[in-house]
Records
---
Amino acid sequence: MKLRPNTSHKSSKTIWSKPQTPKIGFQLLIAILLLLHLLPIWGFKYFPSQDGLSHLYNAHILKSYPNPDNYLLRQVYDLRLTLFPNWSSHLILLALMYLFPPLICEKILLTICITLIPLSLFYFLNSVVWSHLHTTNERSLPLATQSTGSRKIFPKKPQLLLFSGNFLGLVGFIYAFNYLLHMGFYNFTLSISLFFFTLGYWCRRQWLHRQNNLTLTQLAVVYILLVATYFTHYQSFALLMITISVLAVFSFTYSHVYANYVLTRAEGESCGPQYFIQSYLKPIATFLGLMLPLYLLMFSYYLERRGSSSRYHSFEELTDYFLSMKSLVAFRDDHIIIGQLLLAVFAVALVITLLTRLQKIQTRISDKIDRPTQPIWSLLIRPEDGFLLMAIILMVMYYQLPWSKYGGGWINDRVHLYIFLVLLPFFNLGGCRFNLTEQVSKNEESIDKKRWLSYARTTLGSVIVVLSLWHLGLYSQTYAKLNADLTKVMPITEPLPAHSILASGAGGCIIENCPGEWNSFTLAFGQKPKYVDPFGHLECYLAIGQDVAYLNNYEADTDHFPTVFRQRNLPADYLVVRHAHAQEIKTAKKEYNLVKQNGSSRLYRRKKNEPDFRLWQEGTTGLMIDFGHTQEGGGSGISVDINTHYQDQGHGWVTETKRQLFTCAQRQGETDLHGIWSNQDGVFRVDLPNGRYIVTSTHCTQEQPSKIDLIANGKRYVRNLSLNQHPVTTSYSIAITDQQLTQVIHPRQTGKGWGWLNCNIKPMSAE
């Protein structure tokens, strides 16, 4: 069936309205607001978030893990290198850490998070209208066409960057500084902008199209954006899939009904069942088929976690949160009034939208020309109502979903952030809008051009800008005060020494409810931080150094992040104790010495044993360490087996790895050699007086040929040493300055191991 424009009414005008080109002043305003909103990020040393420093530390683990000299990190942690959500921010921080210091990396990530939210909203709002202006939109409704007889002529150069209704995108500056950003949920904050970029891209290509007309390239882009959202945050991905699905069905339904029961009714035509299947059911089925792999991805993740416990907030708590707009409040309640005023802006926009629509309905009904051709429902239901429907669905989800389930929390808070942002295209405040009738009368067209609507847009836009600057000013003031507190809280500000283990809490190495709430008044801030604990993971800053393993790393206790504990039950070299636990540290005084303290916390260092030089008695010319021999089995030197630990004596294994005894078979007539074999890193330490030494080691392997590196006291002395079933000897000279020699044997090939037969340490003065 070919749709033809109705040209019977010569007195009415076409619906095409030339889009307004963006004014330089509006673009300049956006640029200035972006700059202003980045000033508090770069103007203070610390960004006060609850989990931010924890994310920095775990990105540091990812960067440091491949280096075998970081043997404590490799012993305490393992990497979860699988495909799961929550990867994006860690990968961004990981890449940045090769170029910048950790705190600068966090600021760059925050810059991306904050700037992309308003930009994605502008893109989304533009995209809803842009789809009507696309010159290749042959299968869309005749919404943006000029009628000339029976032909449709599309505008030659439809250009649309910003239109007058897009001032609502300014709310993105308010939403950029939200509660969850200050919680340190960087992945979720990144996913907000991905949500609206993806939804905007889909709207540009499919909104109000009667058929699925995505090209292969466009479909690939949609898939890439959706998968990127999945790997950034699952809940945003799930909400995005639901939103696109609802809008797609609404779009196909509205387009089909309007085209076949409004336009054809005006021309006296009818549609049969076959046409209904081809023009309506087939596009929906095609869309669902195209999205099927992503639906499977969404439900597979959900089914893996559906058995977890849940926690619900009461209806009263959710209503108070909703009306107070607490998704924008982080540290103090002063931001509530800003959220409520923003809620009032949305309410005014809603009233104007409804009044404008009612006025158009009244004008249309009173117009005798249009009355015979328009059914009443087409005057009440508009295409932008799809966004109202989606906002209502999100509101129902907000009240029905638990606060925590499926292995995650803050579910209601995340949904709340999306409700009003998805609703923005529904608001009609005049300007460049498109009416889904083929022709409009002069009276109806004049409604959108009334001067009071222009004043309303200017007023509401100005209010939004003022609210965003007020919001920003309060947070800047909070940042300044909290930075003063953050600087004073930690007993030291520099990283801990290399090859250390750090713990925090009330005196033990493994603390329950770690790292503990700050739960205290802050002097500079002048009150307790109400919703976000910016001191929650400050110990992570001390651990961002060479090979410092933090035992209270909460991310390694969950399945949401790329790090996981391998071995946690280890004694801590350093212990940070909050003032709230100061009385409980008495039990640890026997094992730890107080290093530094201030009014907020204390830093303890584990008492170290004096180096054991019994093996280096006067006249000793060298030390031969035989691996694989027991004391009963004999050997030409000191015997070391798989359970010889350094903590018990002046030599031994430092880390716990899988080791085993092995025998290296030799040629007939030669004595078989005994040693220790492993396919993991081996770390062996010996106490010895300071000086210069020659270290000679003998290696072989009992299986396939392999290659190893040998690192001594942080320096790689042997690289790519090839091992086979015949002994291979290597030697190097080293200067000892801290009374210890720590050697790391690192297999370069996964799954292939090394064998260590013996090690001879000889002072150079003995030669």
---
Amino acid sequence: MANRHHRAAALIQDATRDSRLLPPIPALQRVTSSGHQADGKDAAPPDNTFKLQESRSSHPTELSCEAKAALTLQCAFRRILARREKKRRLKEQQEYNELMDRLQREAFVALVKREQEEAERERKKEEEEKRKQREEQQRRKRMLEAAFEGDVEEMKAVLKEVADLDTKNGVGTDENGKVVRLQHHLNMVDCTDANGNTPLSEASGGGHPEAIRMLIENGGNPNSR
């Protein structure tokens, strides 16, 4: 037993002596947050947080299947909305163009219709004037022929037609109306033909004193031919 203890003590001494001959092991150093190196006895256990953050920032996190599906649906829905909006605007533009075309056509048709109506009114007015002129010429012819033949009753009938025509045309019986009526009456009594002959001259030429007296009583000019 004593020999064993002696050998163990000798081995410990040899190991101690050999360890003294080895070069010293440098202490562990770490860089502090202030930029200084710390010795090994103050060093903290290695921190992997920075490495994890750097790894996460350099490699973006991939979307999950649910997120990808939601994003795909959202994009598809936006495309559908965009197509619907485009279709709506195109429809509105088409309706606007059709409305403008229709309004232009209606305006053109209305303009043509107004022009046609105006032309029709002018045509009727001209026809009415021509009709009145023909009737006036016929009355004058009847007046001259009746005077030449001495037909007093026919001359009175012609003068009555003139008065009735004034009434039909709205000529009143006031002072102004009387002036207009008298002018129309005298125009018929002293009417002329293409040669300038008047009813009084025709009655004189035909030798009808009663017709001459009737014409003078109705304002005939004795100095007429």
---
Amino acid sequence: MPTVALDIEIFEVILCHLSLADLQSVNLVCRILHTEARRIIFRTLHFQSKNSYKKVEQLNQACVNIKVCIKRLHLAIDGDCPPKLSPIITHKLFQLIRSLPNLEAFTFKEVDRSIIDPSNPVVIPELALALRSTFLTEFEIRLDYCDRVEGEPIAGPKGLKKLSVGWFMGDRTQDRGSSANHLYQFIKPSLHTLVKLQLTFCPFKFSDTLNLDIGLLGDAENLLQFDYTLQGHDGQILDIIPQIFPKLMSLTILWRPCQKRHSIV
């Protein structure tokens, strides 16, 4: 049966003839419906358009009743953030993450370094600190540009079940393997809990290390799905994977030359 909206004037007339008890019941129903609608509307937020960076500031200004409803957040920044605003938006992004008490899944994609610049030795530690303040079970990050890693490797969040990382950072000057080490240290805290892992490791021209040492991921003994994009060819990987991932049910491996920008498998 099609639903028809009740004219507000008719609704007001009906309310005038209701008893106090009935009015209290109507008020309770309206409050419940309002609360449930808010939960449904703000449960999943997906921003992937021009000026997406502005959504960070808008969400920061949202009231607590809205923030507690947000469980899944997807942000795709298209590189249009003015340079003068970048440090401010970066700070507000980390502030936003910490202010979402029920956040379960967070996706961040960026085509340049305007918001999250992993070559900045301050940014990744602040990101990791913000993530560790949440109860995330799913995290995806893809930074589609190349540079050299700086600073010390930082441990990422614990307890993730699904993790997807697009990593194009090269080795620090005269520090072969530092790019792979930074990536490994970031994902290491969640290896025991992961059931799905997607890795794109293409450090491009700044690195002598073509591939990760997959054997280091052996703590991911509960892994069910592994998608791996790498540059060059590693003929031993197919022999190693069955040994370190005994419960694996789905495997995707993509060998290809690394490009500056491409999608995660």
---
Amino acid sequence: MRPTGRRHNVPLPEPQGVPPHWLARLEYLQKGLQDVKYQIEGAPEDERRGVPFTETVMEDELPLNCRTPAIAEYDGAADPMEHLKQWFNQLSVGAIRSFQEFRSLFWHQFASSRKVQKTELSLFDVRQKEDEPLKEYLQRFNNVVLEVPAATQEVKASAFSQGLLDGDFFKSLAKKSVSKFDAHLARAAKYINMEEA
């Protein structure tokens, strides 16, 4: 059966004298056009007009192998779509002539939002807070350790012990120093169990 219009469900007339493989291709193309038309007609008016892309960009066809990139879920405090829409909508109509230009504008706008790679020095910035249990300090410290995969056992051990408050656990480490972070973790686990008992 030939494709029908989505809204009217009226069958299209059968063409005469056309090879079957051409009919199949024609049906495929007609379905694609109907889907596109439906999507365009169904889109809100403000999303189709007034975009900052030039007509040339808007009329350019996407390559057949073009895939929408998988973008990781935004975990910020604000609505990411609203944030992007505000930026996008403030661009002048017809201002973007190419993808490279769009990429450049986007990059300059959001460059400050990029996550900065932490270094081993970042570990030394983590300090135990007053009245903070050892368990919570260790959790915060380990969160930073995960962002510095190149940190050695010795650097992690040194940064961890330097960030400790002067308490029982710190005194224990001062009496019997160990150079490996794994050893610090084992000893910390014993103190955490005592704190929570």
